[in-house]
Design a protein that fits this description.
Elements lengths: L1 H7 L4 H7 L3 E2 H8 L3 H10 L4 E3 L6 E3 L35
Helix pairs in contact: 3-4
Length: 96
Amino acid sequence: MKHIRKAYDLRSHPQRLADLGLVSLREMARGLNLHTNTVKKWRDAGLLTGRIANDKGEFFYYPPGPHLTRPRIGRPPRQRPAPQETPTASAQGGAV
């Protein structure tokens, strides 16, 4: 394939995807300040979309819009019980 691209001066598939505005895994991770594994997890979860760039399974990603909400990382906050009401009537004898 490479010799055909060279003979006819054709751009590779990743280059054509970049021409369309898609970015590589590393560029996406750098732009979102994330690890590359997190980018892949977000893609699998449907938060990011992309297209396969080659037969190695590498993706090029569409840049996310302003609507991207970053999921909470880590353990979810624990549910705290509702505070119990304190009696408002003063105790026998009152304050000193």
